[in-house]
Write a structure and sequence with these properties.
mainly alpha; about 70% helix
Length: about 350
C-alpha cells in the first residue's frame, strides 16, 4: 500500500489550519461589519418602512451644486457608513493572500467557465459588501490566481445579490420593486456566466491548477517564503491599503462634489430615454454605501420622478462605481472592465423598461 510522505501530511495539516484561520477571521469580521448590523437594522426598517435619508440629496430635496463642501459632506456620510466594511475588506483581502492555500483557490476559482463563475457569485452572498469594499478582496483573489469570470462574479455579486438589500427594498419600496431588483441582480451574474463560458483565457486571465496537492509559497524573488506569518500579513495589509486607499478617498470626494451636476439633468428631464440614460451613467459612476440605492429611489419618487427613471438606479448605483473600477483596474484587462461598465449601464436601461412594463 502506498504511503503519504510525512512532509506532505504536515503540509496538508498546515493548509487546513491556515484555511480554518481564514474562515474564522472572515466570519468574525463579517459578523461585526455586516451580519449583526443587518440583523438589527432589518427589523427596525420593517417597523418604520424607511432607511434614512438619501445620500444623493443629503439634507436637501435635490442634490447640491458642485462645491468642495458638498464633496466633503458626501465623503463624511459615505465613510461613516462603510468604514467597518472597508476594514473588513482590507483584512480579508490580506488574509486571502497569506492564509488561503493557492491550490485550493485555483481549484475553486481558477478557471473561466460556468461552474467556476457561478461559484464566485455564490461566494458573494454571505459577504454582502458594496463594490468598493469588495474590491480589496477581489484584487487579492486575482493576484492569487482567481480567473476573470469568478472574480468578476464575486465582485459584482456582492452588491447585486445582497439578500439584506432585498429585505430593505421589500420593507421600503414594496414587493414589486424588490422583485425587479432581484431579477436585475440575477441577470447581471447570469450575463457574467454567459460571457465567460467557453472563453479562451488570455495571458494572466487564469492559472492552471497544479497536479500536486501542495504548492510551496514563494516570495517576490521566487524563493520559498520564510517570513513569519504576522510579517507577511502586515506586509499584505499595508501594501493593499497604500495602493488602494489614497485614490479611492480622492475619487469619493470628487464624485460627491459632482453628484449635483451628475443627477440634476436627469431630474429636470423627469422622463424619457435621455433621462434614463443620464441616470444609468451617473449611477454607474457614483459610489454609495450598501443599500444606498433604496432611500435614493424612494427620495426621487417623492420628488415626482417617473418610476422607470428612478428604477434605473436600482442596479446601476450598487453594481459598480468609478472608484471601485479604479481600485481593480490593474487586475483585469481594460476590455473586461469596459464591458462590465457598459453591461451595467445597459442593465439599468433594461430595468427602466421592466419598471414601465409592470406599471410601477
Amino acid at each position: 500500500m502506498a504511503t503519504v510522505p510525512t512532509g506532505r501530511v504536515a503540509d496538508r495539516h498546515r493548509e487546513l489550519v491556515a484555511f480554518g484561520a481564514f474562515v474564522a477571521i472572515a466570519a468574525g469580521l463579517l459578523a461585526w461589519a455586516k451580519w449583526w448590523p443587518y440583523a438589527v437594522k432589518i427589523p427596525k426598517t420593517a417597523n418604520t418602512h424607511a432607511l434614512g435619508s438619501s445620500i444623493l440629496t443629503g439634507t436637501g430635496s435635490v442634490p447640491p451644486g458642485f462645491s468642495l463642501t458638498s464633496g466633503l459632506d458626501f465623503a463624511h456620510t459615505y465613510f461613516l457608513a462603510i468604514w467597518p466594511a472597508l476594514i473588513a475588506g482590507l483584512v480579508i483581502g490580506a488574509a486571502v493572500t497569506v492564509l488561503v492555500p493557492k491550490t485550493w483557490l485555483l481549484r475553486t476559482l481558477g478557471s473561466d467557465g460556468r461552474a467556476s463563475t457561478l461559484r464566485g457569485g455564490l461566494l458573494s452572498l454571505p459577504t454582502m459588501m458594496c463594490s468598493c469594499c469588495a474590491a480589496p478582496v477581489v484584487v487579492c483573489l486575482r493576484r492569487r490566481g482567481a480567473s476573470i469570470g469568478p472574480a468578476l462574479a464575486f465582485w459584482m455579486g456582492n452588491p447585486a445579490l445582497n439578500p439584506a438589500v432585498l429585505a430593505f427594498s421589500f420593507f421600503v419600496l414594496g414587493w414589486q420593486w424588490t422583485a425587479l431588483r432581484a431579477v436585475a441582480g440575477v441577470l447581471l451574474i447570469a450575463s457574467l456566466v454567459a460571457f465567460t463560458r467557453g472563453r479562451t483565457p488570455g495571458v494572466g486571465d487564469s492559472l492552471s491548477v497544479s497536479t500536486s496537492p501542495v504548492t510551496t509559497e514563494m516570495n517576490s524573488a521566487g524563493a520559498p517564503e520564510t517570513r513569519p506569518l504576522a510579517v507577511r500579513f502586515a506586509t499584505a495589509f499595508g501594501g493593499l491599503s497604500l495602493r488602494l486607499l489614497p485614490e479611492y478617498l480622492l475619487l469619493v470626494v470628487v464624485l460627491g462634489a459632482l453628484r449635483g451636476p451628475l443627477f440634476t439633468s436627469g431630474i429636470a428631464m423627469q422622463a424619457g430615454i435621455l433621462a434614463v440614460l443620464s441616470f444609468a451613467v451617473a449611477g454607474t459612476l457614483l459610489p454609495i454605501p450598501t443599500a444606498g440605492e433604496i432611500p435614493a429611489v424612494a427620495a426621487l419618487l417623492t420628488l415626482g420622478l417617473s418610476a422607470p427613471v428612478a428604477a434605473t438606479l436600482l442596479i446601476t448605483l450598487p453594481a459598480l462605481s468609478l472608484p471601485s473600477v479604479v481600485m481593480v483596474r490593474r487586475d483585469f484587462p481594460a476590455r473586461v472592465l469596459g464591458a462590465a461598465i457598459a453591461g451595467v449601464v445597459a442593465l439599468g436601461l433594461l430595468t427602466a423598461v421592466g419598471a414601465a412594463v409592470i406599471g410601477l
